[in-house]
Amino acid sequence: MRAAASNRPVFAALTALAALAVAVSAAGCGIRPTSVPVSARSAPARAECAPGGPSPAGSPADGETLRPVYLVCGRQLAPVPRGVPDDVTGAELAARLLAELTREPSDDEREAGYSTAVAGLRVVDGRSGDPAGTVRLSRDPQTLGSPVLAQLVCTYAVGEDRTAVLAGPEEGDEPYAYRCTDEVIRTPDSTVGEPAA
């Protein structure tokens, strides 16, 4: 009986040490205990859409050049490369870019979070007196909502100031100049234009 009694302090000390070790290891992991279930998913295999971040890789076919087409990425826009023939210019190039904007994103692009709001538009013939580079569409761009207008502006933007000149199909539809700024990319509904000179 004396032996059993003399072992009690040793047993109590070992138990306290074990409890202390468990507490230290739990605190050292940096994760607070929670009663809320946590879903631990594996890391994504590739980056999701992110304005200014990685975009889907593209490789042009023979006789093609990669051009950026601006798709919707969350509430913002992000460029995605599309192959267009080297020899198309003017209205034909505008029509090809519009076709790329209109078509549904690929499976990989959809899974990464890309989408498009552009639908039901055509490129139509220009009118005499239009400023150089004007793209006339089957609907007046002034009536297009967000983010459609911003997608068109940033896809058609050219030059150092990233400007696109767009107009509707009617003679009275005055061409307007729009700039694809960082603000437009971040906030598509901030797209505004002014009469083109």
Description:
- With 197 residues, the chain is an alpha+beta fold.
- It has a domain of 132 residues.
- A 5-stranded mixed sheet has the order 4-5-6-7-8, with helices on one face. A 3-stranded antiparallel sheet has the order 2-1-3.
- Strand 1 and strand 2 form a beta hairpin.
- It is globular and about 40 Å long.
- The N and C termini lie far apart (106 Å).
- It comes from Streptomyces synnematoformans.
- This is Lipoprotein.
Based on the model shown, name its key terms.
single chain, alpha+beta, 5-stranded mixed beta sheet, disordered N terminus, lipoprotein, signal, Lipoprotein
Topology (SSEs and partners):
Elements: H1 2-28, E1 64-73, E2 76-85, H2 90-102, H3 107-112, E3 114-115, E4 123-124, E5 135-137, H4 148-156, E6 163-167, E7 176-179, H5 182-186, E8 193-195
Parallel strand pairs: 5-6
Antiparallel strand pairs: 1-2, 1-3, 4-5, 6-7, 7-8
Helix pairs in contact: 2-4
Low-confidence parts: 1-7, 9-47
Question: Termini, distance in Å?
Answer: 106 Å
Reading the helices and strands in chain order gives: HEEHHEEEHEEHE
Radius of gyration: 30 Å
Strands of the largest sheet, in order across it?
4-5-6-7-8
Signal peptide: 1-26
Region (Disordered): 40-63
Biased composition (Low complexity): 50-61
Protein name: Lipoprotein
